[in-house]
Amino acid sequence: MTGTTSAERGLVVAELSVHFGGLTALDEVSLDVAPNEVVGLIGPNGAGKTTLFNAITGFVRPTHGAIRWQGRPLRHHRPHHLGKLGIARTLQGVGLWPGLTALENVACGAQPSLHADLASALTGTWRSSREEGRVHREAAALLAELGVAEWAGRLPGSLPYGVQKRVALARALISRPRLLLLDEPASGLSAADMDELSARIRRLRDEMAVLLVEHHMDLVMATCDRIVVLNFGEVVATGTPAEVQASPEVTAAYLGEPVDVAVSTPTELPAPEPASAAARPRDGAGSRGQTTEPGDAAN
Amino acid sequence: MTSTAPPPVGDLSPAPSPLHRLARSAERVHLPPQPLVRNLIFFVFGCAFFYVLTVSVSAYNDFQIGQIALYAVVLAGLSLLTGLNGQFSLGHGAFMIIGAYALALLQVHSPMNLALELVLATAVAAVAGVVVGVPAARLSPPYLAGVTLLLALGLPQLSAQYGSVFGGEQGLTTTPPIAPGSISSEQWLAWIEVLCALVVILLLANLVRSRFGRNFRAVRDDEVAAAVAGIHVARTKVLAFAISAGCAGLGGALLALSTGVVNVGEFPLSLSIALLAAMVLGGAGSLVGIWWGAIALVYMPTWSTSLSKQLSLGTSASAYLSDAIFGVVLIAVILVAPTGIQGGVRWLLRRLWVAITGRGSAGAAGARAGPLGPGSGAGSAPGAGPLAAAEVAASGDGVPPAVGGGPRTTRVPDDRRPGTGTPAADVAETRQGGERS
For residue B189, what are the domain limits? Predict the structure, then answer.
C-alpha cells in the first residue's frame, strides 16, 4: 500500500458495497489509486470490476462505503460531473458515437472546457466558433499523437478496430483527466497494438492516475504498478505484479485450479476453460492475445 | 469532408522529430471550416431566390410559398429533434396551436411590433416544450411518441373548456400585417414567412455545427457514452425538445397570421402525423430536405383532391385520402429510402460529381452503402442515426464533396474487426489454447 498522504490526493475507495436486490455485486471493497500510479483491477467475469467502475463514475449508487477523490467525498455525483472532477473513463468495447466522425468523437470528449452559450451557438459568432476551432485543433493534435490522424474525418463504423480504440482513448484524454479509468482497453487489439498501449499507459502515468480493468494478463503485469484482484465482489489480493503472480490464492481464485491437478474442482471457483471462454465473446475479436490466459494458468 | 483532398497518409514517417511530426500532421487534418460565413452565403442566396420567386408568381402562389415557408419552420425543428437528437414527437401540432394562440392573444390584448410578437409566441411554445420535454427526456422513443400524441389530442380541448379566453369554437382573429407601399398583402406575408424560415434555418445550421449540435448527436447515438463524456443527457434532450417546440410555435404563429384566424379545427391530430411524415419524407436531420417535406404538406391536399376526383371517390373517402397518402408515404420512405428525398438528391448529385470529375467513385459507392452500413450498428431509431450523420456534414448545402466522412470505402481491417470472430470460434480457439497449455 502507498502512503496515506499521496493516496489522499488520489482515489480512495473505502469498504464499498453495492447490492442489486439480493445480489451482492461488491462486498466491502477497498482500494486506492495514488496520483501517477497505474493500478490494475483484475478478476474473473462477474467479479464486480465494472460495477466498481460504475460506482466510481456515478452510474451506480453504493449501498455502503465511501469513495473519495482528491480528499473530497464523492456521494451524489452523476456521470456528467466526471469531466469537472477530472475523471475520464473509457467504455468496454469502444462506445464511440457512430454518427460522429472520429474528430467529432474526440472533440465531444472535451466537455469540461466547452462553455459557449446557446445564443452564440445559434448565431455562430465568435465565442462559439473560436471555441469550436480550438477544440477541433486539440482533437486533431491528439489523434495525430495517437497516430490515427488520417482517420479524423471518418465515421467510427468504417475504422479498423484498433483505430477505434485509439479514438476512444483520445476522447477520454482530451479533457486532460487526473484519473483515467480504462475498461478493457486491450480487448480485440493485436499484440503490437497491445505493446504500444502498454507503453502509452506507462507514459500517461506522468500526468494522471490510471485504474485499469483488463483480461490480458501480460499487459496488466507489464503495465501496472499495483494490482487489485477481485473475485465474487471481494478483494482477494493486492500487491505488485510479482506479488500477485506469486500468490497461490490469486491463481486459484482468478484462474482456477490447474487443470491437471483439479480432480475435484471446487464448485464455487470457475475452471480455467469456462472462465476464459466466457471472457472471449465480450472481447469481440479473436486475436493473438487469445492464448495469454491459458499461458498464465500454466505459470 | 476529406474527399476533395485525399487524406495525408503515409508521409508522416520521414518527419525529423516527434514534436515536429505532431505539429505537421495536426495541420494537415482537415478541420471543419467555421460555419457562419458559409451559412450566411446560403442565407443571402435563399433570400434572393425567394425574392425573385415571389415577385414573379401570382398572389395565390405567393400565399402558397408563404405556407411552404411556415411549414419549413415547423419541420426544421422537428428534423432537429428526430434527426439529430433521436426523439420522436407525434404532437408538434400542439406546439403550433400554442404558438398560434399566443400570437392571437398578444395581438388582442397588447398589440406590439410584429417581430416582437412572433418572438414572444416562439418563446411561449419553447417554454411549453420545456414543460413537456422534462418528463419526455426520461422516456424512450415509443413512450415519448405516445405522450406527445396525447398532447396533440388533449390540448385542443382546452380551448373549448376555456372559451372565454380562447374564443371557443370560433377561435380568435389575428391582425394581418400591413404591407408597405404597393406590395400586395400576400407578397408581404410571404416575405415575412420566408424571412422567418430562412432565419430559423440559419440559426439551426449554426447550432448544428456548435457544441450543442454535437451533443445532440452524441446523446442520440449513445446516452451512456454521452454521460461519461460529461454531457448532461436529460438537459440536452430537453433543449432539443424546447428548440423544436419553439420552431413549431413560430410556424403556428405564422399560420395564424396568414389565415387571419386561430381555432383548433385548423390543427387536427392528422396535422401532427402529417408533419412527422413530411419530415421523414424530406430526410430527417436535413435542413435542406425540410423544403421537400413542406412542399408536400402544402400541395398534398390539392393533389389528393384531384386524385379523388379522378378516382371518383365519395366526399368522406376523399377527405381522408390525404392522410392515407401521408401514411403510405411514411411507411414507404422508411422502408425504401430512410434518408428521404434529400438523401436521394444527395446520392444523385454525388453520382453526377463522380461522372463529371471521374473522382471519388469509391466514396460514392461507400456512401451509397451508407444507409445500410453504419445503420446496422447505429441503434434503434429508425434511420435517424446514419442519415443524420451524413446530413449534418452537409447541413445547409447539397454539395456532394462536403458530404460524409470522405471515402467511406470498406477498408476493413484484416483480423481485428469486432464480431468477425464468432463466440463459437473463439471458444474453440480457447479450447485449443487450453489443450496446448
Answer: 35-325
User: Among all residues of chain A, which has the CA nearest to that of B235?
Assistant: A80
Q: Specify if B95 maps to a domain.
A: yes
> Which one of A45, A82, A123, A150 makes the best mutation probe of the B interface by having the most chain B beta carbons within 10 Å?
A150
Residue B418: inside a domain: no
Show the domains of chain A with their CATH numbers: 4-86+177-298 (3.40.50.300), 100-175 (no CATH)
Q: Which residues of B touch A57 (CB under 8 A)?
A: 228
Minimum distance, in Å, between the CA of residue B419 and any CA atom of chain A: 5
Cell numbers of B76, please?
Answer: 426544421
Q: Which residues of A237-261 are buried (b: 16+ CB within 10 A; e: fewer)?
A: bbbebeebbebeebbbbbbbbebee
Q: How far is A218 from chain B (nearest CA, A)?
A: 16
Rounded alpha-carbon distances, angstroms, from residue A157 to A96, A164, B375 = 9, 8, 9
Q: What is the pLDDT of residues B96-152, one digit of tens each?
A: 999 999 999 999 888 888 999 999 999 999 999 999 989 888 888 788 888 888 888
Segments in B229-377 forming alpha helices (H): 233-259, 269-282, 289-310, 315-336, 340-357, 361-368
Q: At what angle do helices B269-282 and B92-109 cross, to 10 degrees?
A: 120
Q: What's the pLDDT tens digit per position in A219-260?
A: 898 899 999 988 888 888 888 888 888 888 777 776 666 655
Rounded Cα–Cα distance for residues A278 and A232 (Å): 16
Q: Is B417 exposed, middle or buried (0-12, 13-18, 19+ CB in 10 A)?
A: middle
* Chain B residues near residue A98 by CB distance under 8 angstroms: 221-222, 374, 377-379, 385-386, 389
Tally of domains within chain B: 1
pLDDT at A39: 93
The DSSP result for B210-225, as a single string, is SHHHHHHHHHHH-HHH
> Could you tell me which of A14, A42, A11, A4 has the C-alpha nearest to residue A177?
A11
Task: Note whether residue B128 is domain-resident.
Answer: yes
- Residue B80 CA to residue B213 CA, distance in Å, equals 9
Q: Do B30 and A152 touch (CB under 8 A)?
A: yes
Reported as a single tens digit per residue, the pLDDT across B31-89 is 555 678 888 888 999 999 998 888 888 888 889 999 999 999 999 999 999 989 988 88
Residues on chain B touching A114 (C-beta within 8 angstroms): 211
Domain presence at residue B354: no
B35 vs A288: CA distance, rounded Å: 45
Amino acid at A16: L
ipTM of the complex: 0.80
